[in-house]
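Input sequence (196 aa), recorded before submission:
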Amino acid sequence: QKLNAEQRALLKPGTAAKLSEITDALLKLMLYNAPNDVTVTGMDGVAFAPDVYLVVTLVTKDADSASSTVSQAVQPESVGEGKEIVKLYTISLYKGETAIEPDGRVQVKIKIPDDLRGRTNLEIIRIGDDGNVTKFATSNDGTYISFVTDHFSYYAIVADKLPFPWWIILLIVLALASFFFVIWSRRRKKKKIQPA
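Predicted structure, token format:
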């Protein structure tokens, strides 16, 4: 239907219908959220009805949508030793206006945001409505991080904490030492120059 006359002339009879069937089948097995570059793919025969769609929202620190259970769950002891949450998402499936769960296992594939490319040991955790944190086996190919689930909720990308930048404190101490040395040197010179 979206082909022009020249393109239709190149197709063998039935090819356009076959391509349309294949495209429809793929759309029912995979859902895509373009703003956050997240793909959900059905596994083990899980397919999605044509009216099911994927909603993914990046939750910011000041977002009202982050409940108190999420705030409690993101405490360091829940995330893991030496880890911190670097991105938090809500991932949901909707049929019309109603949030639904998948009928089985699905693979979720999230594009690693550019600001996380240098971070190490990226992992996925789920923060349940009850505040429980579940860690997931995670695949990371350098561009996408993926995991398998059967339930949607808050999902977070966690990474190793960045080391404390001790060099900044060292620079500040050196700058202050230099400043006081210059002041001390100038006062000393003034005292030597003054006649007694």
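Checked by second reader. The helical segments are 5-10, 15-29, 68-73, 76-79, 166-193.
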